[in-house]
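Hi U.,

Before I forget, here's the chain from the pilot set. I'm dumping it here mostly so it's searchable later in email.
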Amino acid sequence: MMTGRTERYAMALLSCLFTLIPVIDPVRGLIFSIVAPAPLVVLGAKHPWRYSLAVLGFEIVVLFFLQGVAVFFTVFYYALAPLVMAQAIRLRWTVTRTVTWSVVIPFGLNILLLVGYSVFVQESPVTLIERTVDNMLQVAQERMPLPEPPPEVSDGPDENAVTAVKSMSQVILMILPAMLVMNFLFTNVLNYVIVRWHFGRSHPPFVIDPEDLGAWHLTDHLVWVFLTSGIMLMLPSALLNVIGWNVFILTLALYLLHGLAIALFWLRRLPLPTSGRWLLAFAAFLFVGPLCLLLCIAAGLFDIWLDFRRQRQ
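Structure:
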């Protein structure tokens, strides 16, 4: 059994490791950066604020010396998201309200920071974003270079590759808002589940929300947002098309979470031990991952009419 003091030291150490390892090795440390908020959430939700704020301040100082001012563009996620989630857990908010505000507040402040920085450097936010996306694609191309064409082949393939990279850049810019929100959404949901699992194993259990994750569902009215975004994709307006694509992608992400809740509901009812259920789920996503994602999205969308968990009876 982990005492309060031991838990504080353990969470502080894990938070520092999960935050600093990705700086040393960005590729291999990606998984650590994804779960980095969880220890801070545990510290903030269960222990006095001074512990989480002290750990957070130490990490920001170290990251500032390692990365410079660039750290302030990531601090709103690594700092605000866990703090907002911890406060929401303290207030006993529902899972929907907790995750929603832990996404909206950091995302909104990131936008304000971008606007303020663009005013400071006297460049438009779009120009800054385009430059960032181009730099990311250039780094990716350097790490995974395209195969060089044979000498007897003309320069056509190189031009095609350049055109493909430019097209990819334009697509990324078009759906960037949805990608950013999805990044916050999925990461915060994963960290919430980890924190909830950790609190459930405490002695005595630290209950943060009595709602069963397997019974979680979206509001039925979201289907109208989904249908409206589909209509916007067919309208002869570039602006409405961009808005439609971003809303369409976000609603698909939400229906994916709805479908995962349905999958969890039925996974618990299989006549298998807990380890066997999770092994089955892992094998399913390993071998037929894309199909599982499509099935979860479809289940989340059509649950309005089919009621897979018989919640509307």
